[in-house]
Write a structure and sequence with these properties.
Elements lengths: L1 E2 H7 L5 H9 L3 E3 L2 E2 L6 E2 L5 E3 L2 E2 L7 E6 L28 E2 L7 E8 L2 H8 L7 E8 L4 H9 L2 E2 L2 E2 L4 E8 L4 E8 L6 H8 L4 E9 L2 E2 L8 E3 L2 H12 L3
Parallel strand pairs: 9-15
Antiparallel strand pairs: 1-4, 2-3, 2-5, 5-6, 7-9, 7-17, 8-9, 10-14, 10-15, 11-12, 13-14, 15-16
Helix pairs in contact: 1-2
The chain binds uracil (URA).
The site of uracil (URA) has 8 residues, from helix 5.
Amino acid sequence: MERLQKVIAHAGVASRRKAEQLIIDGKVKVNGKTVSELGTKVSPSDSIEVEGVKIERENKVYFLFYKPSGVISAVKDDKGRKVVTDFFDYVDERIYPVGRLDYDTSGILLLTNDGEFANLLTHPKYEVTKTYIARVKGLVRRETIKKLEKGIKLEDGMTAPARAKIISADKEKNKTIVELTIHEGRNRQVRRMFDAVGHPVQKLKRERYAFLHLTGLNAGEARELTPHEVKQLRALAENGQ
Ligand code: URA
């Protein structure tokens, strides 16, 4: 259920403020009945008319995208750089990324036009788990892995407990591949965590997002989430995982 004024605004009929005025002025009907209460909530199946014209409600769509590195997690860029929505020319709905990945990070990024869903998944209280594969400079020691897991002091506070695992180490090239699973989503968090322990990230990929993975997709490709996956993600976020 969503607030009537929000649905009207989202349909592109009027701004939120103007939509409220239209409701107050008695110019909005829900299922044929005039509604002048601002708090009214409507479901996707309700029919809404504004000044006698039925509004078209945008279908909610959900995509899992394998973001390549070198692409901005935004819908447009002032400097004309490639943005994630450039890969979705075939989609009519106005989708945007759920959270963000850095320009030079690759991996799973969800896109949707469902604001409530996006807010739920990015709310600090409900963030789902995300697994990153980082190639870092230097040979990472066991104590460092423990530190990453326990919590690292960053300028915006301690990081929450995480899971970290060494996947491989290359003595000759002086680099380590580490898998790091976190459920927070602070800005450049993984890079800052590794910087703090003296192992700058050279390459970063988000390999899993909750139970979702990249299997079957190449960088730059996307697929729609199934209704069941959308439901599962909602349930996970609501249960705080
Ligand atoms: N942490 C980072 O440092 N960068 C990302 O893109 C995602 C998480």
